[in-house]
């Protein structure tokens, strides 16, 4: 409760010193309750309206009374259905279903839980069943309590009376709605007493605490997997059964979790709900937004313990560490190729399949990855987004800018372990190493030509094909290399470089 100078209550228009803000008090959900009772009220007039203690108590009572009426109506509908209750008689392991339990007619039914809803005749009844679900009991009073329970009754009818006034969410109970509202308000009341973690639900906090305690009580009976929650174990079990119960209605995609399906559906709808509040960036995944926010804060929490590399994500750091360890876990099942990342392997597989799904809309260029196509498109647009902060240099690739920056710093990080050679790129070092090994990996399958450089090999192959891709736009001259074309162009310009 906030205590301030006297203000006018939005509801009764009386002056009060003790009040609650209707739009901001998310704990009591006053705004939701008031709009539920009186949707015509405009809580934007005046700005940030308040309610006095007396009106708050009245709102709570009326809202509770309305919910009671709703639940009673659901109970009455349920009990009016014929066969809402069934019973079974067990004797000598023989199952008999006598018709000795009668439903009271509507004329005799009163809204009073003390009045029995069934008339029982003397019998050997042992078990009562609910026709709407799998609930059973040996006590009729327990069955009646089951039928009038709020949560159970809503499950029977399928109704979700508690609606969010911000989005389309509906729930069966007020407690679920309160938990949902924390997504809009950002409230995280459940705090860890060991670290800075805060959660929106108690179950989330319990799951988090297992990181500190190491407790994983939910164990798989097939493998060694242990989970912190029952739901995580259920998801894990789908891996053994190969079950993917959540299916896309548009394509053939199936997933083992609803959250994965929701993320997939955004590809069809184009929805990007996770928006940056600083720039125009939007994402389909919350984790991508978190990574993006590091760009604004310049925060790179994941650091390499060998070199100066820092990353915004743990996955990027793991990929980087493979440069130091030489690990290449992604192996091709056709040839001996091994890659350090899955994307590298996918790109390699196109060499076997010949598949290049990403096509340029301007020319005939095709690529194996979307990132390659984006880089290629900058040739048509002339865009060079990667600019040097020290000179006028700009490039259409981030890798080129990194190499350029080494020239300013005089840095050559890639060193030969045999001689004193240092290179600015890993590819430079690899080419240099061929001098020590004598290896020439690029071999022509038509003649004996071998080369240590891919570009030289490509130029050589043009001799066999007769292709001359570099054409003069003034005369009919064609060349197999770009350097030859440049030399030719000087004739048109009258330029004499070598004096």
From TrEMBL:
It is found in: Nucleus. Residues 128-161, 162-189, 190-217, 218-245, 246-273, 274-301, 302-329, 330-357, 358-385, 386-413, 414-441, 442-469, 470-497 form the C2H2-type domain. GO terms for molecular function: DNA-binding transcription factor activity, RNA polymerase II-specific; sequence-specific DNA binding; zinc ion binding. Gene3D superfamilies: Classic Zinc Finger (3.30.160.60). One of its GO terms (cellular component) is nucleus. Keywords: DNA-binding, Metal-binding, Nucleus, Repeat, Transcription, Transcription regulation, Zinc, Zinc-finger. The keyword Iron does not apply. Belongs to the hunchback C2H2-type zinc-finger protein family. PANTHER family: ZINC FINGER PROTEIN, ZINC FINGER PROTEIN 672-RELATED. This is C2H2-type domain-containing protein. It comes from Aquatica leii.
